[in-house]
Amino acid sequence: MRIDDRRAISREYFSRERLAEHHFRSFNAFLDRGMQEVVDEKATIETDIGDKEGEEPVYVELGDVRVVTPRVREADGSEELLYPQEARLRNITYAAPVFMEMRIIKGGEEEEEHVVDQTETKIGRMPIMVGSNKCNISGFTENELIDIGEDPADPGGYFCVNGSERVLMTSEDLAPNKILAEYDTKYGDEIQVAKTFSQRRGYRALVLCERTRNGILEVSFPSVSGSINFVTLVRALGLESDEEIVHRVSDDPEIVKFMLENLEAAEVQTTEEAIETLGKRVASGQGKNYQLKRANYVIDRYLLPHLHEDGVDEEEVRINKAYYLCRMAEACFELALGRRESDDKDHYANKRLKVSGDLMKDLFRTALNKLARDVKYQLERANMRNRQLSVSTVVRSDVLTERLEHPIATGNWVGGRSGVSQLVDRTDYMGVLSHLRRLRSPLSRSQPHFEARDLHATQWGRICPSETPEGPNCGLVKNFAQAMELSQNIEDEQELKHELASMGVSGIPGIESIEQTPADD
Amino acid sequence: MATSTQSCPECDGRLREGESETVCGECGLVVAEETIDHGPEWRSFADDETEKERTGAPLTRSRHDRGLTTEIGRSTRLKGRKRRRFARLRRQHNRSRIKSKAERNRVYAFGEIRRLVSALDLTDHVRDQSCILFESAQSEDLLRGRSIEGFTAAVVYATCRTTSVSRTLDEVVEAARASESELTAAYDALNRDLGLPTGPIDPAEYLPRFASRLDLPQAVERRADTLVDAARERGLISGRDPSGVAAGCLYLAARELECDLTQAQAAETAGVTPVTLRSTYQDLQE
After folding, report:
1. I need a surface site. Which of A169, A299, B132, B141 has the fewest CB within 10 A?
2. By the 8 A CB rule, do B236 and B200 touch?
3. What sign results for the dihedral spanned by CA atoms B137, B143, B148, B151?
4. What are the structural domains, with CATH classification, of chain B?
């Protein structure tokens, strides 16, 4: 490529839209879909009204959520459009009102369910990224920008809270829902472990499958202390016969040998027995019925939550969980036999970036939960004092606003992470550009982590090989390469699965695979 | 060094208060030393000009305990007997937080005031003032036989009026859990027994809100403001509903500046009838 061609490409990459584009795309996706997804996950707010005798139960149904563009509410009560420059100068927050459809529904016990009140009400204010789709300056020409006091060269991509510009630091996390096989040591012996960070709707659970020194597989997951025998768990999930378990793990003769050892040492033979054994572990000393209930709850709730999906029945999910555990077992054995290397955590294929939209989604989820708790409290209070229940008098809009603004203003994110939002580096123009394209590894900077700090071959073309700070943060804070493209998660997983099924992938849960006729037919 | 009002016991000279001691300015006698500094030790590294907080939230009048709540937290490290003990302690602590019926009422009322203030988009200052007003109403024993909801709505309405950010009764009632009669009963009691420093509402206070709700340009709002002034000079304001006057002035201003606005729209926003609006409008035109 000729040098001036390269220069032309570089110039394109450094044009206004491209520099903070990952921030815009991520935040716009959050505004367009993410917020509604979070609301749909929540769906209803249950109350304790109706626990008393002769009282009808009440709950709230959450509907469509809508964000307008940033506005400022003056003390005299008037509301006006807000531009970023005004927010900066007046030390106010560049935030847009959020509205949500809510219905209070009463009944279900004696009388029929009926809607008491239904309105779209303001639930709070969402800080808006400067330059995003909901920003008041989006689509402005250069002269219009100058007229409202905005710098046309400003890349945007940050928030404006209490007048200070805050950028959300992209963070680099280990990819969720992937099996990672690696070596570990336990009591001085080397063991093989397959790990999965299973993630669904903000809930994250680490599932471990270990092959101990005597060759027995054990699984551990949240809510169960210690570990559970692999065969017991798989049987509890409905994979019962010896043959099927072995077949699902592998057809490799050596692995089959390992599996037979495991099956011989098995504590239980049937699904019922397995669930009983599990029940003794999760609720020891409780009644038999409660133990069974608890065991079923635990495997449906805490074990591999990412395999749950809307429109797939529990039965099928359970068997899929069993299959997934078999894959983890296979990874353990393969590692033990030296058929594969341990997975490289620093490989960029095993990394995912959390950009501003993902971070805002986490924040909005907890803020909405807080709001829901407040609505519940207000409803119960209003009901106790025999007041008319209405949507507008039970929603306190400052609850959500406070929960959204405070983390951005201080950088103390949900889940105990700190330093997530930083003051935009305005030392010079290049400083801003570099700051918007920076990413941070959540690893502690006080520990050595030599491998994590090293330049990895897979960072080629993605991460700048030379721009990293000196000192404790060296190699943990990185910067995007100039021509890096950040791909986004797909909007609709169902659509992708249908596409895969039509191409001949069979066994996808919830989708009837299409019968493929052999080519020679 | 500040000079104190007291004088030196030896020579009657002026005393000077320093960092840690009080010294006579004339003879150098140390009158007091190692005094306790009751002031806050400002310690904010971020921007100490605007945020002068050391740690924790500042004291606020909008909480029954001034925001100095102590909570017994939870820990996953506690197990068994100790955990149960802390659960009991927490429960007892929560019970002992509220001492009397009056305090319980205050907790509920302050929560309600906070909700109202957030629903009406008012400032924190209004919130604090409302809470103070509620407390004084409570100490004057005005609440007996009247509803707390009515009183919370009334104190917010009253504070808005005294701090010149008036809201109409309708606006407050809409956000409140009280009916209009409850509100007026409470407001009358407040006004009678506490002597609120409220005068007649200036219609100009309503203008910006109505104008933004009607989506009128700034020019119309400014013109309406001068019209209100003109009406005041001609004595058209006294004895009239201020929201009616505000709506009338806005309507006239919109007409003069050829802006689309019907009488019905303006009247509806202000919560008055078009007849009320017209009376101001016609008088102003003369």
Report:
1. B141
2. no
3. negative
4. 7-40 (no CATH), 101-194 (1.10.472.10), 203-285 (1.10.472.10)
Map residue B2 onto helix, strand or coil. Answer: strand
CATH 3.40.50.11460 fits A178-337, yes or no: no
What residues contact residue A435 under an 8 Å CB cut-off, 6+ apart? Answer: A167, A422, A424, A425
Chain B residues lying within 8 Å of A395, measured CB to CB:
119
DSSP string, B31-96: EEES----S-----SS-TTT----SSPPP-TTSTTTT--------SS--HHHHHHHHHHHHHHHHH
Rounded to a whole number of angstroms, the distance from the CA of B191 to the nearest CA of chain A is 23
Convert the pLDDT of each residue in A370-383 to its tens digit. Answer: 999 999 988 888 88
DSSP at B225 = H
Give me the residue from B119, B165, B177 closest to A397, CB to CB: B119
Residue B3 pLDDT class (50, 70, 90 cuts): very low
- Identify all chain A residues contacting B122, using CB atoms and an 8 Å cutoff: 75
B11 assigned to a ligand binding site = yes
CB A79 within 8 A of CB A70: no
The domain locations on chain A are 3-169+353-444, 178-337
Q: Which position has the higher pLDDT, A519 or B37?
A: B37
- What is the Cα–Cα distance from B276 to B286, expressed in whole angstroms? 16
CATH architecture of A3-169+353-444: Alpha-Beta Complex (3.90)
Using CA atoms, how far apart are residues A26 and A169, in angstroms rounded to an integer? 13
Q: Residue A198: what pLDDT? A: 87
The single residue listed with the structure tokens 């009463």 is A106
- Neighbouring-strand partners of residue A101: A120
d(CA B47, CA A312): 54
**Taking 80 as the threshold, does the pLDDT of residue A1 lie above it?**
no
Mutation for testing the B interface, residue in A398, A400, A406, A423 having most B CBs under 10 Å: A398
- The DSSP symbol for B171 reads H
Nearest CA in chain B to A392: B175
Instruction: Evaluate if residue B42 carries a pLDDT over 70.
Output: no
Please state the ipTM of this predicted complex: 0.71
Residue contact B177–A382, C-beta within 8 A: yes
Q: Is B8 annotated as a binding residue?
A: yes
Region of A398 (left: φ > 0; alpha: ψ -120 to 50; beta: rest) is: alpha
**Chain B residues touching chain A at CB-CB below 8 Å:** 50, 108, 111, 114-115, 118-123, 149, 165, 167, 174-177, 205, 208-209, 211-213
- So what's the pLDDT on residue B10? 80
Phi, psi of B47 (to 5 degrees): -130, 100
Q: Give me the amino acid identity at B219.
A: A
Give the span between the Cα atoms of B99 and B104, in whole angstroms: 8
Interatomic CA distance for residues A251 and A263, integer angstroms: 15
**Nearby residues of A259 by Cβ (< 8 Å), 6 or more positions away:** A245, A246, A249, A250, A329, A333
Among chain A residues, CA nearest to B218? A80
A397 contacts in B (CB within 8 Å)? 118-119
Three-class SS state of B100: coil
A residues 64-103 closer than 8 Å to B (CB): 73-80, 91
Q: Chain A: nearest CA to B12, how far in angstroms?
A: 51
Report the alpha-carbon distance of residue B144 to residue B21 in Å, rounded: 52
Q: What's the confidence (pLDDT) of residue A65?
A: 92
What distance in Å separates the CA atoms of residue A112 and residue A371, rounded to the nearest whole number?
28
